[in-house]
Structures are given as C-alpha cells and as structure tokens.
Amino acid sequence: MTNVLAIDQLGYKHNFKTILHDVDLTLEAGKIVGLLGENGAGKTTLMRLITGSAKGTGTIAVCGDTQAAHHRSHVSFTEQLRGFTANTRVDRVADFYRTVYPDFDGARFEELVTFLQIDTSLKLAALSKGMKEKVIIALTLARQVNLYLLDEPFSGIDSMSRKRIISSIIKWKPDDATMVISDHYVSEIAPILDEIVVVKDQTVYAHKESDAVREEFGMGIEAYYESLYEGSVQHD
Q1: Domain-by-domain residue ranges, the chain?
Q2: Which of 14, 176, 206, 227 fits 232 for a cystine, CB–CB 3.0-4.6 Å?
C-alpha cells in the first residue's frame, strides 16, 4: 500500500522547551489510527506540524509532498471555529469552507448535517460545546482528502451521540484515505482502530497494529496503552 504520511526525525521546541524529538512515523493509505497519549504529550502539536500550521525540524511528507504549504490540500484537520465571530451562522461557515477548499463536498456536508442533527441556521453563539464539535466534525469530514486528523473531536458530545458517531466513522471515510483520531475515549474508539500510535517521552513511543496488540499481549487497546505509561509492558 502507498504511504499517506511519512515523518522522519521530526523535532519541535516552543520557548526553548522540547515538545517533540526524533519522531519517525509512517502511515499507510486506508487506515484508521488512534493517536494516544497523556495531556501535554504533544499529540495536538504533532497534528499541527503535519498540517503545516507549525514548523519543526526534520521532514514531513504527506502523499509524498514535503512542502508544508501544500499539506493543507491533502489534510483535513478538526480546527476550532476561532476565526469566526459568535454571530456567524453555521451555513455561512460552510460557505467559507466551500470557497477556501475546492475539495469541500457540499452534498456530503448536508448528509453529515442531517446525520449529526445540526441546525445550520443557528449562529455559533447559540451552539452548545457538543454541537460546535459536531459542526467541526461535519466540516472536517465533508472535505475529500487523503488524510483526516481528528483532535479530541468528541470531548463535549454526550455519550449516546458519541458512540453513534464513532460507529459510523468508517462510513464517512473514503476507502483510500487515512484517519488519525486523538481521543481520551480509548475504549470507545478501539473497535474501529486498525493501528495505534502512542506518544510518550516527547516522541512516538510505540506504533502497532491493533490486532497485534491483542495477539501479542493478550489485552485490549486501552489496557495496553495504559500499561506503556505505567511501565508494566515494554515496547519494542
């Protein structure tokens, strides 16, 4: 299979503090990958580096392209709605996406809006935290790209809706696209994950296929991830 993402010796510092170092990571096309790690481990930073909105050392190739300025044409990232005023209506935000991203699929967005039960006539100020996250998910998945980066997309969404969205993720992902999900609801996203990437000690500490974790260690994804942080299982 072809590689959607290839990271080589990536490093990043902020205010002279090392956030990430010596990150090597290759992801194949068509996968759903869990990006796991404690708060502050560097998961969001890694996603921002992949999109090109942050710059580090080393190289990042998305679909073979190492030019950071080109990455946004290959990557759809769950960015917050900070650039829009509180009085902006949801449908106006979608219009902006249509203008900025040629790959934005309006029909797909409408399908997602219906599925997620979003009222696009509402202003952003009228939305709850969970509803804003549903809007962000719809905007992100409406783009037709090679790589989707979902950074804690479900944190404000109620349990029933969250489980429904997670179980339908496969439906919204193009077959040849790769999706990376960073989330604290590890047990809930585990059933849909093909692989996991664990960020620890400021680097990619482990990268394994989900089935391999279950077979090699005889434990679920969440238990394996927690054991790495506790030190009771050694990675290879």
Answers
A1: 87-144
A2: 227
